[in-house]
Amino acid sequence: MISIKQVIRKKSITFNILLFSYYLFPIHCSYPQPNELLTGADIFVKNHLDLIKGKRVGIVTNHTAILKNGVHIADTLNSIDEISITALFGPEHGIRGMAPAGKKIESGIDMQTGIPVFSLYGKDRKPTKEMLKNVDIILYDIQDVGVRFYTYISTLFYVLEAAAENNIPVIVLDRPNPVDGVTIEGPVLDESLKSFVGIAHIPVRYAMTPGELAEYFSNEILPDTLKPDLRVIKMQGWKRDSYHNEYDYKWIPPSPNIPDIQSALVYPGTCLLEGTNISEGRGTENPFRTIGAPFINSEELLDELMKRDIRGAELKPVSFTPVAIQGVVESPKYRDEVCNGISIKVKDKSFRPFEFAIKLISSLVKLYPDDFKFNSYFDRLSGDKNLKEQILQGKSFEEISRQWQKELEEFKSIRNKYLLY
Fold this sequence. Notes:
By secondary structure, this protein is α/β, with parallel strands linked by helices. The chain has helices spanning about 5, 40-45, 75-80, 150-165, 210-220, 260-270, 300-305, 355-365, 375-380, 385-390, 395-400, 405-415; strands spanning about 15, 55-60, 85-90, 110, 115-120, 135-140, 170-175, 230-235, 290-295, 315-320, 340-345. About 25% of the residues lie in helices and about 15% in strands. A seven-stranded mixed β-sheet has the order 4-5-3-2-6-7-8. Strand 6, helix 4 (about 150-165) and strand 7 (about 170-175) form a beta-alpha-beta unit.
């Protein structure tokens, strides 16, 4: 057993005892062989091509739709003579994932296949009747990060709605929830805050795969008069309590600022900093894992966090200067200014990113009341119009989160009907 004194180092605070088990990230011990995983796309190509042969196929996808052999689903299907792909539909960041966050995407032609591409992150967020005129069936294959404000699930919702309106069947090729399919966090979305970063009445971490979420959207969110003809191609080998790095499947950054699994693990919490004047680390090598501002004293912030029972993460002081990075971020917060703050490294599965973020923001409000600011985006990200005021009032995370529990329990009960694994 490693003592707390051994874990705490100068300029480094670790808030948990590191347990040497299969559930840890690689630290200083040996690990089992990765688990075998086959995504819905792998299973589809192997067993279900008959579902689209002779039909005009539209694929909602991006750069993450890679098969186990390293080839993209669109490139794979386009090489098969009996299959006709007539349209590709791209979410935020584009069909090949090259556009920075928030940048509008234009429709055009996919240079690798020559297939028309329709943007679902430009003038239109939902496929139009005109876009779908040459489509008999839709495939959906996108890796997301299991978080409500990650816009790929909003694209999924609108695809299901448009498909129902136009009587077009949808096949969702399922992929893992990379931050586990068990842990649920954060408030259920207040309907008054519905937006493209909060499309439906679900928590921040909803612990469902894209296929499960598609079933939930279809049966619980869309009206009874608008039910899509939906089929989910399940994965093989995925376990609900697992993280993505527990498999032999290569990590493909789902967006430019989620470069690795560590960023994905903290993103459900530190993305809330986009609704403040604190840098969330865009413009650094470790976005969402590096947070700060020019007015922060790193050691002071670490001392305050030490009082708030942060578990499962190692925090260190850091100074950084956000810069523009081509294809990743054009104008990061505090561009070319020196910021002080902390870096975050997840150590085990006791870490709760949304809880951490509330405790972090509460610490910043306490330490820097004249410098720290919320902006109007915070409410849309949190999905709770009261959260900001409760933080400013100095309420603890435990007091705040108690108010979510009834709705969370109701969500869990409904969610259970749609779990496929």
